[in-house]
Every structure is written in structure tokens, then in C-alpha cells.
Amino acid sequence: xxxxxxxxxxxxxxxxxxxxxxxxxxxxxxxxxxxxxxxxxxxxxxxxxxxxxxxxxxxxxxxxxxxxxxxxxxxxxxxxxxxxxxxxxxxxxxxxxxxxxxxxxxxxxxxxxxxxxxxxxxxxxxxxxxxxxxxxxxxxxxxxxxxxxxxxxxxxxxxxxxxxxxxxxxxxxxxxxxxxxxxxxxxxxxxxxxxxxxxxxxxxxxxxxxxxxxxxxxxxxxxxxxxxxxxxxxxxxxxxxxxxxxxxxxxxxxxxxxxxxxxxxxxxxxxxxxxx
Length: 276
Hints:
Elements: E1 5-8, H1 33-43, E2 49-51, H2 64-73, E3 77-82, H3 91-95, E4 100-106, H4 113-130, E5 135-140, H5 148-161, E6 171-175, E7 178-182, E8 208-211, E9 217-218, H6 238-241, H7 245-255, H8 262-265
Parallel strand pairs: 1-2, 1-8, 2-3, 3-4, 4-5, 5-7
Antiparallel strand pairs: 6-7, 8-9
């Protein structure tokens, strides 16, 4: 079995506390380099693309440079999702690593109008350097919440790049290697939410897999609490985890158009998928 992408949460610790991001019940944990090496050795035969994010701010990892060096060595293509607040401190690190395919900057992370100008200026300045090395995607995924910072940031980007942000498009190109992605706030699945229909389909466990900072393997990048615990990659081989009865039941359930896990019953994001 191979996956289009595998999410690796190198840290679940974040330097912000955004309103759209549910607070974690898990203990704070940074994956150390030996643990990351273990993860990469296990998942390398399964994918060519890793995403250094589920929860937490990856640029805050104390050995972020070492993490990317390992990905360079293994010829992995890396996507990074960041809130952008630490980007200026990491420009030289980001520039030098060939593994980086795309940097996603969640501009909706800025919810403080007083700090918005400095924040977006820093990101634009960094972008002018980094877009020569890999793709960058500006993201505002809370466009529906009337956040004044979102409006300011969009206006600032329009003036900087002499464009008009087309809010009718989910993603559009600003210039070479630079894109803008707009979307409405999505709801992280949680057992505390109302039950959705058990009927449906999901790409979790099919084209993606997730590994939390404590080694817990989950089938979906939205399983932020490890509710669907398939096993621990620090203890078990990934092949054994993907052969266990829980994963097979999860996979076969969606193959038959049915959610079998409790978390999936409370997820609305899967409504976006239509089984082909």
C-alpha cells in the first residue's frame, strides 16, 4: 500500500492560540530526532510526500533544520504548513533544503489587528526571497468569519502584487511559485459534535495517513486527538499497523460507503468526498 501523502506532526506545540483551532487535550510533545528518524525509516517505502503538520507550529521545532536534512537525505518532497510568525527566523534554513516542495502560510492565524501590519509585511518580505526556491501558498481559510485582519491582509496583498483576489476561486496564481487559497472555516471532527450520516466516503487511510508527535498512527489529518488510534509507530512496524483489524475495518467500511469509527460519524469534512 502506498499513500499520496503522510502527515507527520513533528510537534503539537504552537506559539499561537487561534479561535478556529480546537485546543488539544494531548500533552505537549515535540518529536525528537531519533523518533523522527524512526518514522521516516518506516514510512519511506509508502510515500514520496510528507506534510510536517497536523497540530502545532512546525517552524517552532527545536531541530527543524535537522528534520529537513533527514528529508533531503531520503529524497522526500516536503509540504510545510505554518502560521508564518516564525518565518523570518527560518529564511536561511528554508532556503537551503532541496526537499521543500511547498510552504503553506495560514494568514488567518493573525487575529490581532494591532500586529497585523508587521505580520503581513514580514511574510511578504520573506516570500520575495523564498518563492525563488519553492512554491508558496497564502491561505485564508476563515473568510466567512468577518475577521478584520483577514480583510486587511487581502487588501495589503492586492496592493503589493497589483492583483484582485478572486474570492470565487478556491485557489489562484498570483505569480510564478506564489498562490492564494481562500475558503470558509471548516469544523474539526469531534465526538462532541452532532452525529453525521454513517453513509459516505473518505480518503483517510486511502491516500493519506497521519502520525502524531507521540507516534500514534491515525488514518486522517483531522484526527487531532488520536481518537482512531491504529497503533504506535515508535513501538510497532507500520506494516503491522496497516494489517491490524481496526485499520482494515476502517478501510473496508468506506470501501462500502459506510463510516465505522465514532469520530467519522461526527465529521462533516468527509461530505466533500464523492466515491468514484
